[in-house]
Amino acid sequence: MTILRLDTNLILYGKVLPEDLAPFRQELSRAPVRHVVLAESPGGDLRSAYGIADLIRKNHLNTSVKGFCVSSCAVMFMAGEQRQIIEEKNYKKTILGFHAPHNKETKEISVDGVPRLREYLVKTSGGKFPPELLDKAMNIRDASDMLIFYYPEEGKQSVWFCPANARPRPKGCEKLEGDALSAGIITTLARLDVSTLDPKPETEKPGEEKTDPVDKSVER
After folding, report:
1. 23 cis-preceded (ω within 30 degrees of 0)
2. For helices 114-124 and 46-58, what crossing angle results, to 10°?
């Protein structure tokens, strides 16, 4: 993943790689960190994600998400003490996705890894993650099958199970009961204002236009 620092905040985006744990640990030791933003990540190496998640939990960091954060990225998100969706114009498209671990080469489901991930999700959700939703996420046939959560809004469907071949997503997926708050995925419905993550620098000129640090982080 690309790791960017903004004062006491770290922004992580992109694919999770085995070598990501070391630079994340270095950032924690280099200067104080209070918040981790996860953006536009398809997941990746689960071992590295568990390691980063462990550091997030031990340091009592908060996490937030912008765009899509699925698979190993969602594992890291769940480690946050407080977990929020970022307030921005496309927040309704933000998703958190969960599924059983699998071999990155063969795409075969890692049956041995399921109990650990299941236990982890129950623990980090404060025991709120519904067993029926966990079953959907863990008992998959294809590595691309995904249980996804959108920001919950009254009167709108926000939890879906999407098989690999489901099209379009999410309307072609299975509708499920529940929402991200009651399932312990996010800890509050309050959306995070990213301007609060980047304290106003003393050198900023009056009238100077502010930039969204998260938007800046996901430029390609």
Report:
1. no
2. 30
Q: Report in angstroms the alpha-carbon separations of 204 from 4, 72, 123, 176, 207.
A: 20, 37, 43, 47, 9
- Are the C-beta atoms of 159 and 179 separated by less than 8 Å? yes
> pLDDT tens digit string along 118-152?
999 999 999 999 999 999 999 999 999 999 999 99
The answer to whether 173 and 117 are in contact (CB under 8 A) is no
Tell the residue number behind the tokens 């994600």, with chain if given: 49
Cβ neighbours for 76, distance < 8 A, ≥ 6 positions apart: 12, 16, 36, 38, 49, 52, 53, 56, 63
Residues 6+ apart with CB under 8 A from 116: none
Strands (E), 76-213: 83-85, 95-98, 146-150, 159-162, 174-175
Question: What is the C-alpha separation between 135 and 87, in angstroms, rounded?
Answer: 30
Q: Which parts of the chain fold into alpha helices (H)?
A: 21-30, 46-58, 72-77, 114-124, 131-138, 213-217
pTM of the model: 0.89
CA pair distance 219, 208, nearest whole angstrom = 21
